[in-house]
Design goal:
The protein is mainly beta and about 150 residues long. The chain has a single domain, classed as OB fold (Dihydrolipoamide Acetyltransferase, E2P), CATH 2.40.50. It contains two helices and ten strands; from the N terminus they run E-E-E-E-E-H-E-E-E-E-E-H.
């Protein structure tokens, strides 16, 4: 069990809660004016213009193979390998500091899950933003963005 003070942005996808380290989150904004990105993977919703910069939007429902039951109208902007990427989420619930994060459960082998926080009536799956996309996916995505 890790013991550290980790300030976390907690968001939802459907009924599930996920957390990202606050230091990896650049900002949270409304998801508006999505421009389709031809030949992009199915989990890429398209591009948004954020103060003159084209940012790809990753639909985490599609990336995690979850049913999309929410409004999916917020974007959490994170930095992944020196590139800004938007993560489409249903709701940002809170920013909270955790002292204990359990390691990821046995048999959970996906690299983007860092661990789990168990609260009385809640479980928050902690994500590692650097592992949400593989290096090859990032390179291909940035090439598609540059060609737009």
């Amino acid at each position: 069990m890790e013991t550290l003070d980790l300030q976390t942005v907690i968001f939802t996808l459907g009924n599930e809660e996920y957390g990202l380290p606050v230091q990896s989150v650049q900002e949270i904004t409304l998801l508006e004016n999505i421009h389709p990105l031809p030949q992009a993977p199915t989990y890429i919703r398209g591009l948004i213009n954020l103060r003159g910069q084209a940012l790809p939007i990753v639909d985490l429902h599609r990336k995690f193979d979850l049913q999309n039951t929410g409004s999916n109208n917020l974007v959490v902007i994170v930095e992944i390998n020196d590139n800004l990427v938007g993560l489409a989420v249903d709701e940002v619930k809170e920013i909270r500091t955790f002292e204990k994060i359990e390691p990821r459960p046995y048999l959970v082998t996906v690299p983007f899950i860092n661990g789990v926080v168990n609260l009385e009536n809640r479980m928050i799956i902690m994500l590692n933003p650097q592992s949400l996309l593989e290096e090859q996916e990032i390179q291909e995505l940035m090439q598609l963005v540059e060609n737009q």
